[in-house]
Design a protein that fits this description.
Length: 271
């Protein structure tokens, strides 16, 4: 079969796809804004079919209903980063926290320290060769999918097609759920007076040609607002958000002076 025939043969509904999850499975959910929330909801709705399914992820941007007390019999959350919707469950003993450096998390899956039974992810529509992009969240999502016994993917035209080592071929996806879902959007933070002061002080320390590693929140966004007069900045970072786009469009960020992957921004996820 060609890739298009493979693709069509594997299309299914969210409800049918999550029926392949079994009690005791370890399920790794795509990260942050790339979380496949339609699949997650279908899994929670199907909870009566499961006991002790382990849900593994870092930042949860969805409601994390599997962490609710009434679902404790069916799901246990193994958190690699305690977020707003999962922290209470960790405190109350209904979830566990596994501390790990972000850079080490792919190894947990590829080296089978945490063997992956099922990977749930959201990807772009395939290109002419049958490759889908992991879009806004490549990070640990791609290695988890490559290590999983079973891969279930939401395929949506709203997932941006990012380049680099960011692809999965449709032949590697076991169940395909076509949908019109959009990646979760994190609204920009409100930048306060103190954030602006900190941003201004930090910006004074950043010289022309500097390579930036960025975080999330009001302070990093404030710093970016003070860099409009800089030149030839580069990006090699965990993540970035909208402020970087503004500086790219103004020509401030062009990565021309980077000594590693010059002329390219490198990131692992976006919010």
């Amino acid at each position: 079969m060609n890739w298009e025939e493979i693709y069509r043969s594997r299309c299914t509904t969210p409800e049918e796809a999550v029926n392949r999850i079994r009690s005791g499975d370890r399920v790794v959910v795509g990260h942050a804004c790339g979380s496949p929330e339609r699949l997650v909801k279908a899994m929670v709705d199907n909870k009566q079919a499961y006991d002790n399914v382990e849900i593994v992820h870092m930042v949860a941007m969805g409601p994390s209903e599997y962490c609710q007390p009434e679902n404790a019999k069916h799901f246990i959350h193994n958190s690699l980063f305690a977020g707003a919707t999962t922290r209470k469950a960790i405190h109350e003993g209904r979830a566990v926290f596994t501390p790990s450096h972000f850079s080490q998390i792919p190894r947990l899956f590829t080296d089978r320290i945490l063997p992956v039974d099922v990977a749930l992810c959201m990807v772009s529509t395939p290109d002419e060769h049958g490759f889908c992009s992991f879009g806004v969240s490549v990070d640990y999502t791609k290695p988890a999918a490559e290590s999983a016994k079973l891969v279930i993917a939401e395929v949506t035209p709203h997932m941006p097609r990012t380049l680099g080592d960011a692809f999965i071929h449709v032949s590697k996806i076991d169940h395909i759920v076509e949908c019109d879902s959009r990646p979760i959007i994190l609204q920009p933070p409100q930048i306060g007076e103190n954030d602006e002061k900190i941003g201004g002080y930090c910006a004074e320390l950043i010289g022309d040609g500097a390579c930036l590693q960025l975080g999330i929140g009001a302070v990093p966004d404030s710093i970016l607002g003070f860099l409009k007069d800089k030149q030839d900045l580069g990006i090699h970072t965990e993540m970035f958000s909208d402020g970087v786009v503004d500086l790219v469009e103004k020509g401030v960020i062009n990565c021309s002076r980077k000594n590693f992957h010059p002329h390219r921004m490198v990131a692992t996820f976006f919010m």
